[in-house]
Design a protein that fits this description.
CATH class of the largest domain: Mainly Alpha
Shape: flat
Number of strands: 0
Order of helices and strands: HHHHHHHHHHHHHHH
Helix content: over 70%
CATH superfamily of the largest domain: UbiA prenyltransferase
Structural class: mainly alpha
Mean pLDDT: 92
Radius of gyration: 20 Å
CATH architecture of the largest domain: Orthogonal Bundle
Distance between the termini: 57 Å
CATH topology of the largest domain: Tetracycline Repressor, domain 2
Oligomer: single chain
């Protein structure tokens, strides 16, 4: 592993490094699913302070988990082109400092959620961190091609936190929301992994495009896409959503599946179409954001 040691590190560099440790772009996507879930659970707009406290606690918990991930993965981050500019690779901070930062974030996250939201939400956040750090990062990521399939459960927990924040309980609807994100994660991440296959191969990380043929990888992307589309249909009656969600989920899921099908058709020739893979990857982000947004819109129109 090669770690770059900067000759001079400014305070600004360090602060930017700590922010980078939390992987803010990933957190943004988690929050996009949390707020609409709270609206659906409340059948309206929840209290402002409850939303703020839930978002703060969820952000800190996810940030801490991501920081732990960077500490553990700093050796393979140094090998991969996509991650070689992360703060622990460039030497902006030490692993010890990053670990202390991660622990501090988790402690504050638990306190915020336990005091201002509820105990259930606080423990759900901690369970997501433990699952992401131990099950995914330490156990699965470097050993199994199913790493992102199983590990994706951690990224689906924020909807459970959002629901429990409002109701202090769980039920079938939040479980379905959890499953949608759980099933969404493999096609989302594998599409990106097609683009960075050489990176993962160099780092000896057994992502699906590295250990399986392109045809097999894209076939599984297509299968997961269809399954996810079917699950979104079940959310409507479970959450008592109306036609806005029903129509939107069908269209959004149809486009997702169409892109997955195009990727599979190109892969049958044995040649990776990176442009198709990245189109699916970028759309998958838009898809998840739009799906949860229309849930919230449907509720606000239906009940107000």
């Amino acid at each position: 592993m090669t770690i770059t040691a900067p000759t001079s590190i400014s305070t600004r560099d360090v602060l930017k490094g700590y922010v980078a440790l939390t992987k803010p772009r990933i957190i943004e996507l988690l929050l996009v699913t949390t707020i609409p879930t709270m609206v659906v659970a409340a059948k309206g707009i929840p209290g402002l302070w409850l939303v703020v406290a839930t978002l703060i606690g969820g952000t800190l918990a996810a940030g801490g988990a991501n920081a732990f991930n960077m500490v553990i993965d700093r050796d393979i981050d140094a090998v991969m082109e996509r991650t070689k500019r992360r703060p622990l690779v460039t030497g902006v901070m030490t692993p010890r400092a990053a670990t202390v930062f991660a622990v501090a974030l988790e402690i504050v996250a638990f306190a915020v959620l336990a005091i201002w939201v509820n105990q259930l939400s606080a423990w759900l956040a901690m369970s997501a961190t433990a699952f992401y750090v131990v099950i995914y990062t330490l156990i699965l990521k470097r050993r199994s091609k199913q790493n992102i399939v199983i590990g994706g459960a951690a990224g689906a927990v924020p909807v459970l936190i959002g629901w429990s924040a409002v109701t202090n309980s769980l039920g079938w609807t939040p479980v379905l929301l959890f499953l949608v994100i759980f099933i969404w994660t493999p096609p989302h991440f594998w599409a990106l992994a097609v683009r960075y296959r050489d990176d993962y191969q160099a780092a000896n990380v057994p992502m699906m495009p590295v250990v399986a043929s392109l045809r097999r990888t894209t076939l599984e992307i297509l299968i997961y896409s269809v399954l996810m589309w079917a699950l979104t249909v079940l959310i409507g009656p479970s959450a008592h959503l109306g036609w806005i969600y029903a129509v939107s989920s069908m269209v959004l899921g149809g486009v997702f599946t169409f892109y997955a099908l195009l990727l599979y058709r190109h892969a049958r020739s044995g040649v990776a179409d990176v442009a198709e893979a990245m189109r699916l990857f970028h759309y998958s982000i838009t898809y998840l954001s739009a799906l949860f947004l229309v849930m919230a819109v449907d509720v606000l129109v239906r009940y107000h």
